[in-house]
UniProtKB/TrEMBL annotation:
Residues 1-23 form the signal peptide. Residues 78-268 form the Uncharacterized protein TP-0789 domain. This is Outer membrane lipoprotein-sorting protein. Keywords: Lipoprotein, Signal. It comes from Halanaerobacter jeridensis. Pfam families: LolA_like (PF17131).
Length: 270
């Protein structure tokens, strides 16, 4: 009897251990990740963008970015970017405004054209200023747009993560067939995202967050990210630049004029 009881107890413990993995659902993991990304009323940063080809050659760019939560009740934000160098892209400005229950509004100003151009919804998979990010990649995808499944828990480098598969509910409108995200338990931040091609169902691109996530002004902050296009064998690295004292050039909750988030600012730069 003791042996039987021991065996039964062991089986019960094993069952409890196996089901504990699913104590949190895939959707809950992604809800938490979306909440972290939407923290902070304003953000201002100076960033670098490196375009890296298959031979390791690097083309460096510098851009300044401002973000503001313009509707706190609906948790909607707007962001504007301005490229400073090199000369070939200096003065290019981009504005993105989140909307409820529909895609973001996006506009870009190209100095060579001398006018502001709206980015249409069917241009979402176009490259953003020659980088490995598309216009759709720049959006924070609504959690409700996908079905999420928690695949497993595992350690990625130094972080314990939830691994979640996200499949679009509307496959025709989505850019990718699916995404698999490694979301840290500590920060609720995706540190690796695999994006699968709708044509081949193979990995098309991989977004990797360098694992030096730290808090700035109370907010978890990512300092370095790489988007790798597996099909083109090309990478884009985005990172926060540092000031003369070696501190990261990023600040939160500082006053920013709403006039900066307008088409007029895109064209005039003021």
């Amino acid at each position: 009897m003791k042996v039987k009881r021991s065996l039964i107890l062991t089986l019960v413990l094993m069952l409890l251990m196996s089901t504990s993995v699913f104590a949190i659902t895939g959707k809950e993991v992604m809800d938490e990740a979306e909440g972290v990304l939407n923290e902070g009323d304003t953000m201002h940063a100076l960033m670098g963008m490196d375009l890296i080809d298959e031979d390791g050659n690097v083309r460096e760019r510098t851009l300044e970015i401002w973000g503001m939560k313009y509707n706190k009740e609906e948790d909607l934000s707007q962001v504007v970017m301005e490229f400073q160098n090199p000369a070939s892209i200096a003065g290019t400005r981009f504005l993105q405004v989140e909307n409820k229950n529909r895609g973001d509004d996006k506009w870009i100003y190209l100095p060579g054209l001398g006018r502001v151009r709206r980015i249409a919804s069917d241009q979402g998979d176009d490259s953003f200023v020659g980088s490995d990010f598309t216009y759709d990649d720049l959006e924070t995808r609504d959690v409700e747009e996908d079905n999420h499944q928690l695949l497993r828990e595992e350690k990625l480098d130094k972080y314990e993560c939830y691994v979640v598969e996200s499949i679009p509910k509307d496959k025709e409108e989505a850019q990718y067939a699916k995404r698999i995200s490694w979301v840290t338990k500590k920060h609720d931040i995706p540190v690796r995202v695999e994006m699968y091609s709708k044509k081949t169902n193979e990995i098309e691109k991989v977004l990797t967050i360098k694992q030096n996530i730290e808090k700035i002004s109370g907010y978890w902050t990512v300092f370095n990210a790489i988007m790798e296009d597996k099909e083109a064998d090309h990478k884009t690295r985005l990172y926060i630049k540092r000031n003369q004292s070696g501190q990261p050039f990023i600040e939160y909750d500082k006053k920013i004029s709403p006039k900066r988030f307008t088409q007029r600012f895109l064209k005039q730069g003021r």
